[in-house]
Request: fold
Amino acid sequence: MALALRLAAYELLRAEGGEPILLLDDVFAELDTARRRALAAVASTAEQVLITAAVDEDIPADWDATRITVTMTDGETGRQSGIR
Reply:
């Protein structure tokens, strides 16, 4: 339901002439294959898409995208995050 509302708001903003950024927070993990393909089709028409995923394999492999991986390490000064 939350995803449907987010996509409806996105489409409404596009219909009004804007090019909103489509933000998707770990949505692919909850979808079956058919719904993943449908969401990927919608996302492929967006000017900009930001997606988070807990598992890299949740993001469609055929997307031409920049992937940023956030890592966590325990160091002497405590837990630190890094990107690669």
The helical segments are 2-15, 33-43. The radius of gyration is 15 Å. The chain has one domain: 2-83.
